[in-house]
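ARCHIVE CARD
Drawer: 12
Card no.: 0347
Subject: one protein chain, sequence and derived structure
Cross-reference: see card 0346
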Amino acid sequence: MATEKVFPMTLDGKEKLENELQELKTVKRKEVVERIKIARSFGDLSENSEYDSAKDEQAFVEGRITTIENMIRNAQIIDAAEAHNGLVTLGNTVTFVELPDGEEETYTIVGSAEADPFEGKISNDSPIAKGLLGHKEGEEVTIQTPAGDMNVKIEKITAS
C-alpha cells in the first residue's frame, strides 16, 4: 500500500482549508445542485449547455472537496516558532536582498497546500524556498531558478 503524501502547513493554513471545505459542502454544493435542477427543466439534456456547465462545476466542486479532505487528513502542522533555531525553516518569514544591488523581498515559506504568491506565501517546493531553507541570517546564498542563478543575502528570519 502506498503511503499518503504529507501536507506540511501552518495552523492558519489548515484553518483556511477547513473553512473552504465547509463553504464547499454547505453552500457551493447546494448551489450547483440547484443549477442542475433548473437546467434539467429546460428539457433535452443532449444539447443543454447549462446542464453540461452545471455538471462540470459539480465535478470540480466534488473533486476539490476530496482534495481538501485529503490535505486536512494528512496535514502536518508546522510550528515555525518551535522550529526556528536561527535557520530558515518551513513557516518562517524571510527577508532577503538580491545581490549585488537588488530590491528587498519578503516571503513566508509554507507547504504547497497553502502557497499563495500574491500574499507573499511561497511553497517549500519552489526554487527560492529550496534555496533558502537551512540557511541563516547574514548568509549569502545562490539560488538556482529556471531563469538562472540568483544570489541573495538573507537579511531577516522571523517565525510566523
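Annotation on reverse: The helical segments are 11-40, 49-73, 80-83, 127-132. Residues 107 and 120 are 5 Å apart (CA to CA).
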